[in-house]
Amino acid sequence: MTLVISGATKVTVSKLSVNLSDLTGSVSMEFPDLNVSTLYDMDTDVMNSMTLKGVGHCNATISNLKVNLTGRAELTSKDMNGKTYLKLTHVKITMLIGDAVGRLVDSSNDEENIMLTEAANTFYDINRAEMLEMFTPIAEEIAEALVTELGGQVLSSLPYNEMFVD
Fold it and tell me: Where are the domains of the chain?
């Protein structure tokens, strides 16, 4: 899966809290505009009434995104070199999406799929608030998985005692 997110450099961190005694932390961030581009391969039933199939690109702009992230870690056992690392044990993300506009662009060259994709785009445009409410928990789950995976990779490469210098 290809996923490109740009605009994250414009983030504002409004709250940051780290507790080293119980290895917990939280952060609140605001992103004015995020641009998301990905490929999709879809074969699904929408509301048990319409089959949506196709492959293509999805481009979207998410505006005024507020993210609250909380997490917990634990120290690993010492490795062969006597070093310990942090391991994420819990990540929870909540999002408030101000708005999101986007397009699915079918590249299957199948006329029916292209028409259904355009119908889906129109449906989204007309029902954007309801669709955002429906998609937000999915976006939160994806973000939690990404943070857990990427955070785990970073934390497993940096020994705990080297993270904080006196």
Answer: 3-162
Tell me the backbone φ, ψ of residue 130, rounded to 5 degrees: -65, -40
Q: Give me the count of residues in the chain.
A: 166
Using a cut of 0.85, tell me whether the model's pTM lies above it. no
Tell me yes or no: is domain 3-162 CATH 3.30.420.250: no
pLDDT tens-digit map of 145-165:
999 999 999 999 999 988 876
User: Average pLDDT of 122-127?
Assistant: 94
Is residue 14 within 8 A of residue 30, CB to CB? The reply is yes
**Exposure of 47 in the CB half-sphere (CA atoms within 13 A):** 5
Question: Nearest CA to 88 among 73, 68, 104, 110?
Answer: 73
Find out whether 12 and 30 touch, Cβ atoms under 8 Å.
yes
Contacts (Cβ under 8 Å, ≥6 apart) of 124: 102, 131
